[in-house]
Amino acid sequence: MGKGKSDNNILIKNKRATFDYELLETFMAGIVLTGTEIKSLRTGKASLVDTYCIVERGEVWVKNMYIAEYFYGTYNNHSERRERKLLLNRKEIRKLETFAKNAGFTIVPTRLFINEKGLAKIVIAVARGKKAYDKREAIKARDDKREMDRAFKH
Q1: How far apart are CA 153 and CA 74, in angstroms?
Q2: What is residue 13's DSSP assignment?
Q3: Are 42 and 12 in contact (CB under 8 A)?
Q4: How far is CA 139 from CA 21, 45, 49, 54, 152, in A?
């Protein structure tokens, strides 16, 4: 599969991130992947559930991101949940580092996709954990919106 239009429909979302966290600022980063990882990603076999990022020695790493082993990969296949390096510029890394040092903040991936050039990109967000009552409020707002949409359709 080359760099065609069929690659652009890969979009993996982390729906739990917007529910569990209040997203403050987002960054787009590239990911360092092996050959079997990008092939598996192009088939859509990845997940961002329970994934988080850390800043370590001036580098940003994504931890616990699941990319399924490539079906046709032999002994070269990757491990499914290995740490993967994110590609950001120094200014962005410094900004993330200051957020990460403060208590109550975390860095969570929200979307993973393949851009028009065929490169894997990940959108990460600096987030603050929501309290239980914030989550209940979000559920109520979503239910109210659903009810209003139903009322207008009939």
Answers
A1: 52
A2: E
A3: no
A4: 13, 29, 19, 29, 20
